[in-house]
Amino acid sequence: MRKRVVITGLGVAAPNGVGVPSFLDAIQHGRSGIAFQPILAELKFSCQIGGIPPITEEIKQKYFTDLQLRQLNSSGIIYGVIAGMEAWHNAGLSVAAEQPDWDSGIVFGTGILGIDKFRESIYKVDEGQVRRLGSTTVVQTMTSGVSAYLGGMIGCGNQLTANSSACATGTEALLLAYERIASGQATRMLAGSCSDHGPYIWGGFDAMRVTPYQFNDAPERASRPLSASASGFVPGSGAGALVLESLESALSRKATIYAEVLGGHLNSGGQRGGGSMTAPNALGVKRCIQQAIEQAGIQPNEIDVIDGHLTATIKDSAEVTAWCEALDRRGADFPYINSLKAMVGHCLSAAGSIECVAAVLELHEGFIYPSINCEDLHPEVSNLIAPKKIPQQLIEQPIQVLAKANFGFGDVNACVILKKFNS
């Protein structure tokens, strides 16, 4: 018999807020975390803005020892550890003492990890200084570096792994963790994802000309999902983390239950039918949403809010079309839909997990955050759904069911259905 799975812990390091209280306040007030980045201007990037979590030395000292901080320059690991440990403590869980916690595991994904460490290492190797690389180069640059750091800090003895599926990484991690618990192979799992920041991560997107260059002097207006004046996605970074747990375990220890995971689906469009390395197959997206709903055991008309992928590119209207067809709902019957990327940019492999944290907060606290910077709705979007379904101001109202999806390079899709927990 499959187990019910709930979310009992949250952690986040986002461009507009580090820590759940700060992040919650930011998304409720529509506060942007996108800023001008002088290093990008110096390096002659077209897009000279980005989203970087405001991590202070005080925050680092709270989560790392002096020894761990020595030569640590993988920003993804720093963000991932901060978000992961916050989620673990937020769930009211302790770290293992002498023996591993055999019932707890981690799925924490990333795209490219430790790129600044890679750059430093390449120069030293080319200069014949391989012996001066330091002892942490490998763990800071391996894909599973962040899950390894967190696994050691917490003492997890169940599955410990890192997934990677571009922009869908974080939502995929949540669903992999959900499946591990639902099938009875673990009692609780820490799920999340992270992404480095900086020119060596973001340069490739600038070269592809998919980032906006018109808003370097007005960064907070640059990320414009669903807008007629959207001109590309703003690069971001950070990490999000969620503790998933069997309902039985959460109830037994009287944990705060933020939401229930009803189910979800992962698939690929196969880079066929209009799909490619960088664009989704529309049928693949539609099937992913429909199968997520089926596996969650709900009807499409039960969905109150869609927390979209919506990157501020020409594909936004295609995503809304896919939701309309998958749910068979349009106009005023369409659920509310918003995009966190308007406030934090596109946090790449961290996008799904940060956005999942926001989605869970919406359910638990009873609000819909504003989808800012879309005062000029794209006509292809307003022809599909009623403009009032895209909130431009905070809406405070109870939500029962929310759908969260992310779609990534490689034509990969992930959709999860979350529900407010009612005892």
From TrEMBL:
Signal peptide start and end residues: none
Q: Do you know which CDD domains this protein is assigned to?
A: KAS_I_II
The Gene Ontology biological process annotation of the record reads:
fatty acid biosynthetic process
Q: Which residue spans adopt a coiled-coil conformation according to this UniProt entry?
A: none
A GO molecular function term, named singly, is:
3-oxoacyl-[acyl-carrier-protein] synthase activity
What's the domain of life for this entry?
Bacteria
> Principal localization?
cytoplasm
Keyword tags: Acyltransferase, Cytoplasm, Transferase
| Top enzyme class | transferase
Q: Which catalytic reaction applies to this protein?
A: (3Z)-decenoyl-[ACP] + malonyl-[ACP] + H(+) = 3-oxo-(5Z)-dodecenoyl-[ACP] + holo-[ACP] + CO2; a fatty acyl-[ACP] + malonyl-[ACP] + H(+) = a 3-oxoacyl-[ACP] + holo-[ACP] + CO2
Entry's localization field: Cytoplasm
- Listed Pfam families: ketoacyl-synt, Ketoacyl-synt_C
- EC no. given is 2.3.1.41
Q: Where is the Ketosynthase family 3 (KS3) domain?
A: 2-420
Q: Name one GO cellular component term.
A: cytosol
Q: Which family is this sequence assigned to? A: Belongs to the thiolase-like superfamily. Beta-ketoacyl-ACP synthases family.
UniProt subunit comment: Homodimer.
Query: What is the designated name of this protein?
Result: 3-oxoacyl-[acyl-carrier-protein] synthase 1
The species this protein was found in = Spirosoma pollinicola
